[in-house]
Every structure is written in structure tokens, then in C-alpha cells.
Amino acid sequence: MAAEHSPLAQFEIKRLIPMDVGGLDVSFTNASLFMVIAIAAITLFLTWSMRGRAMVPGRMQSMAEISYEFIANMIKDNVGSDGRKYFPFIFTLFMFVLFCNLLGMIPYTFTVTSQIIVTFALAAVVFVGVTIIGIIRHGFKFLTFFVPSGVPFVLLIILVPIEIISYFVRPISLSVRLFANMLAGHTLLKVFGGFVVSLGIYLGWLPLGFIVVLTGLEFLVAFLQAYVFAILSCLYLNDALHLHH
Amino acid sequence: MPQLNIADFPPQLVWLAITFVILYFLMAKVAIPGISEVLESRQNRISSDLEEARRLSEDADKAKADYEQALAEARAKAHGIVSELKASMAKEQEASKAELDAELAKKAKAAEASIREAKETALSHVREIAAETAKSAVTKLVAIDVSDKDVEAAVAGSMKGEA
């Protein structure tokens, strides 16, 4: 009973349809369910809203176009014209994170992005992908990325390891940022929800008011973290393509 | 923390991979081309409309220039007609004025002549009447008959003195 009311109980994985393929656990879990709902919602949103193909867009079509242009401009500003090729990936990444975050704001739903393994997998895909792009594009010259230019040789002994560590920390910082934001927000909402019940009708309105404010903040965080995830991916991509320093 | 349960990792990774790849293809093949097509056609429409508007505005400018030129020509023509008309009217007026002047001068001369004639007749009558009056007055006053010759000489003498 106590475990069910724990603020962390909402993050538990429940196997809805247990499955096993060659010893690998591929059960359809509550997380899987919300991943499927998210991609269905994204696809529905982007195709249903564009069905009119109106010259003057309505509300829904405007939202779809704004999402498209938002990411298109992000890539144009941060990566440049040769980033165009990666637009579908960044767009998919942004929409997936955004919809998982927003779906998590509906009560009784599961927040996919509050799972460290999910955010880490997304960040790892970005990290590995960007590194491969950099190596394919620049070959051995890619290693100069870790050597800041115009720095005395003695300092390089310290700076190069720092550069290498900071590079390999990227997937961790990228994934933990999103995960921690989602975890903290949802846990806080749950904790204050518990306070409302335990303080009762006389004092319960205080944490209730806090929950209202926090919910607004969490919507902001949902958008902001999707934006941060996408823009950092763009910046990493830019580093790999142009080796700027 | 339930997130750190390693036994839960494989199903999440597998389903993340499945859903993310499906979403990627749905986005790349369906959603993104749909949106970019609409945006592109709107952009084309806007630029073609702008082009059309610029063309129409050029046409309007040209029509305005043509109209202004025509107006200027008409104005110059009208001005020419007016000044021509004025000149011809002035000439006509001049001619009729000269004619009138000549006629008036002729009439004035004729009038002068008739006045002089009348004056002369009147003057000659005055002399006769004065002589007659003087003779009868002398006859009545002094009862002597004065000859006509003397009377006339006297009248002529007094008229000379008066004149």
C-alpha cells in the first residue's frame, strides 16, 4: 500500500503484454504504450492538420507549420545549409521528446522521458551519429577537434584531456538534463498532491495552489527541454560538420 | 528509483528503437514532405502574386504617363487655338474700329460743315434784323427817315466793335 503511494511509483515499468524473443525481454510495457501513443499522436497531428493544404492556414495547420519552421530555422541558424540533410532526424527527435513530455502532463499517464534509459538511448544515438558524421567528413582531422588552436603546447597537455572528457560527457549531460527535469517535476507534483490529501480541507489548499503554479511551470519545462534537447543536438552536429572551436 | 532497474531496460530500448524508427520514416516520408509542399506552394504563390502586382503597377505607371502626355498635348493644342482665336478677334476688332473711326470722322466733318453754314446764315440774318430794328427804332424815336445805307453802316460798325 505504501509503495503504491510513493512519489516514485509513477515511474515503475509495468509489463502489459509480456513477450520474450530469444531470451530478450521485449514485453509491451506501459512505457511502450506511451511511446506508441506519442508517435501516433505526432503523426495524426502533422497529417490531419495538414489535410486541407490550405493556402491560408487554420489553427491546427499553423501549429504544424510552426513546428516545422521552428526546427527548420533552428538547423539553419545553428548548423547552416549543409544541416538540411539532418532535418528529418532533428525534427523527429524534437517532436518525440516534446510529445512524450506533454503526454506525461496528463494525469495518470506515463512519462516516457522520465526514464533515464530512454533519454540516454536518444542522447547516445545523437552522440554516436554525430561522431560518425564527423569522422566520415573529416577523417583524421576530426581529432583536431580536441586540440584548441592558438594555445601554448604546455597548456595542451591539460586542455586536450579536458576537451576529450567534455566531449564524452555530452551524451550523459544531454540525457540526464531531460531525465532529471521530468523526474523532478513529476515527483514534486506527486509529493505536493500527497500534501493536499494529508493536510485536509483546512490547509490543503496551500499545496493545491502550489500544484497549480507548478503545473504551468511543468508545461514550460516540457517545451523547454524538448527545445534544449533539439538545439544541443544541432550544436553537436554543427561541431562535427564544421569543427568550429 | 524504479528507473535504475536494469531488468526493465531491454523492453524499453527495444520499443524505443521500434517506435523511433517508425516515427522517423513517417516524418521523413509523409509529414515533412506534406508540410514543405504546402509551405513551398505558398511561397511560390506569394512570389508570383508579388510579381503580378509589380507588373500591374508598372502598367498603371505607364498608363498614367500616357494619360499625362495626352493631357499635356491637348492643353497645348487648346492653348494654340485660344491664342489664334484671340489674334483673329483682335484683328477683326481693329478693322471694325478703323471703319467706325473713319465713318465718325466723316460724320463729324459733315456736321461741322452744316453747323458753319447754319452759323453763316444766322449771322447774315442777324445783320438784316439788326438793321431793320435799328431803322424802325430810329424812325420811332426821332421820326426821321434814315436811309438803309446809313443804318447798315452803323450796324456793321457796332458789330465790328462788339466782335
From TrEMBL, chain A:
GO cellular component: a single term: proton-transporting ATP synthase complex
GO molecular function (one): proton-transporting ATP synthase activity, rotational mechanism
Keywords annotated in UniProt: ATP synthesis, Cell membrane, CF(0), Hydrogen ion transport, Ion transport, Membrane, Transmembrane, Transmembrane helix, Transport
Protein name: ATP synthase subunit a
PROSITE patterns: ATPASE_A (PS00449)
Subcellular location: Cell membrane; Membrane
Source organism of the structure: Sneathiella chungangensis
Transmembrane segments: 28-50, 86-110, 116-136, 143-169, 189-212, 219-238
Protein function: Key component of the proton channel; it plays a direct role in the translocation of protons across the membrane.
UniProtKB/TrEMBL annotation, chain B:
TM region positions: 12-32
Name of the featured protein: ATP synthase subunit b
This protein's UniProt keywords: ATP synthesis, Cell membrane, CF(0), Coiled coil, Hydrogen ion transport, Ion transport, Membrane, Transmembrane, Transmembrane helix, Transport
UniProt cross-references to Pfam families, sorted A to Z: ATP-synt_B (PF00430)
Membrane topology: Single-pass membrane protein
Subunit description: F-type ATPases have 2 components, F(1) - the catalytic core - and F(0) - the membrane proton channel. F(1) has five subunits: alpha(3), beta(3), gamma(1), delta(1), epsilon(1). F(0) has three main subunits: a(1), b(2) and c(10-14). The alpha and beta chains form an alternating ring which encloses part of the gamma chain. F(1) is attached to F(0) by a central stalk formed by the gamma and epsilon chains, while a peripheral stalk is formed by the delta and b chains.
One example GO MF annotation: proton-transporting ATPase activity, rotational mechanism
Record bears the keyword Lipoprotein: no
Gene3D superfamilies to which the protein is assigned, alphabetical: 6.10.250.1580
Similarity annotation: Belongs to the ATPase B chain family.
InterPro entries xref list: ATP_synth_b/b'su_bac/chlpt (IPR002146), ATP_synthase_B_chain (IPR050059)
Summary of the function given for this chain in its UniProt record: F(1)F(0) ATP synthase produces ATP from ADP in the presence of a proton or sodium gradient. F-type ATPases consist of two structural domains, F(1) containing the extramembraneous catalytic core and F(0) containing the membrane proton channel, linked together by a central stalk and a peripheral stalk. During catalysis, ATP synthesis in the catalytic domain of F(1) is coupled via a rotary mechanism of the central stalk subunits to proton translocation. Component of the F(0) channel, it forms part of the peripheral stalk, linking F(1) to F(0). The b'-subunit is a diverged and duplicated form of b found in plants and photosynthetic bacteria.
Keyword field contains Transmembrane: yes
Coiled coil: 50-121
SUPFAM superfamilies xrefs: Apolipoprotein A-I
Source species of the chain: Sneathiella chungangensis
Compartments where found: Cell membrane; Endomembrane system
Primary site of residence: membrane
A GO-annotated cellular component: proton-transporting ATP synthase complex
